[in-house]
Amino acid sequence: MTAIAATGLRKAYGEHKVLDGVDLHIPQGSVFSLLGPNGAGKTTTVKILSTLTSMDSGDARIMGHDLGSDPDGVRGSIGVTGQFSAVDPFLNAYENLHLMGRLWHLPAKTVKQRAVELVEQFDLVEAAKKPVVTYSGGMKRRLDLAMTLVGGPRLIFLDEPTTGLDPRVRRSMWELINGLVADGVTIFLTTQYLEEADQLADRIAVLDGGRLVAQGTPEELKRKVPGGSIDLQFTSLAALDQAAAALGVGATRDEEEFKLRIPSDGSAQNVQAVLNRLDTSTVKELSLHTPDLDDVFLALTGQSSAQKTAETTETTETAETPATLAA
């Protein structure tokens, strides 16, 4: 079953091409993460697929509904949590959830039951009757996500859901997201935190200049980037010399610690091939170094995640709230 099937998505603002032929295929019950520098078109992609803006050309089916001919069917199947909080700070959690239920035209009894369930699920029971203005940032984001779930969507777009949260709260959000996926919900995630994508995503696509420059699992993407190595420590300098001679050129020596670094893609076959050329009785320690997603991001887009985070927000893209979608 496919949650999103999109081909040839294109969008331009004047002469500026934001999306230039984007193809996506996302299975149901998975986490898909879209990465890219600011201005790459991530939020525009979310806005198009969630019916919040139109595409110039292309085709897409969302949860079986054609995006062009059946936008109402798409809206009835999805939820959106934007970059910025959609909660009313002067209402409490129950009141915010009831408001969202009314926007979805749900029966009052259903809304009341869903509100109770979601407050418990998102660990907001103690604060549920307090105004949201008293909540921490993490509590507001949990309520944001809970509001997205009032209508029972099977596909959720999370656009930078943990921006500004501390690492502990971010990991709490990851647990909530994993719980949703375990229940069969599909997650379309954009994030500036590469560790977040690495932890959550089944598949990742990297968007740069309006085009997808790579797609795959986190491990597949890491293997495409050079820089991996097998690091070996030997029992003596003589053993180090013997190993260096056996492996030939390309290895880097550290004679003080009897260490040798050999370029490697990290695959089991490559590691075994290296070990087969050595007297393993002289190997004191072995470790593998593989590129991380930051290395992948740098190789594909020409900038690191730290540079990306430091830049200003995308000028042509603005976040939308779930309330806008429901209305």
Number of strands: 14
Number of domains: 2
Mean pLDDT, rounded to whole units? 88
Structural class: alpha/beta
Shape call: elongated
User: End-to-end distance, in Å?
Assistant: 28 Å
Counting H and I runs of at least 4 residues, what is the number of helices? 13
Strand content: 25-35%
Overall description:
Helix 6 (167-182) links the parallel strand 7 and strand 8. Helix content is 36%, strand content 26%. The chain has helices at residues 42-49, 71-75, 93-103, 108-121, 137-148, 167-182, 194-200, 218-223, 237-247, 268-276, 293-301, 305-310, 322-326; strands at residues 2-13, 16-27, 31-35, 57-62, 65-66, 78-81, 155-159, 186-190, 203-208, 211-216, 229-234, 252-254, 259-263, 283-289. Residues 308-327 have low confidence and may be disordered. It has 2 domains: 2-222 and 302-326, P-loop containing nucleotide triphosphate hydrolases (Rossmann fold), CATH 3.40.50.300; 227-289, Alpha-Beta Plaits (2-Layer Sandwich). It contains 13 helices and 14 strands. Helix 3 (93-103) packs parallel to helix 5. The chain is elongated. The chain is α/β, with parallel strands linked by helices. The strands form 3 sheets. It has a 6-stranded mixed sheet, sandwiched between helices. A 4-stranded antiparallel sheet has the order 2-1-4-5. The longest helix is centred in the middle third of the chain and has 16 residues, at 167-182.
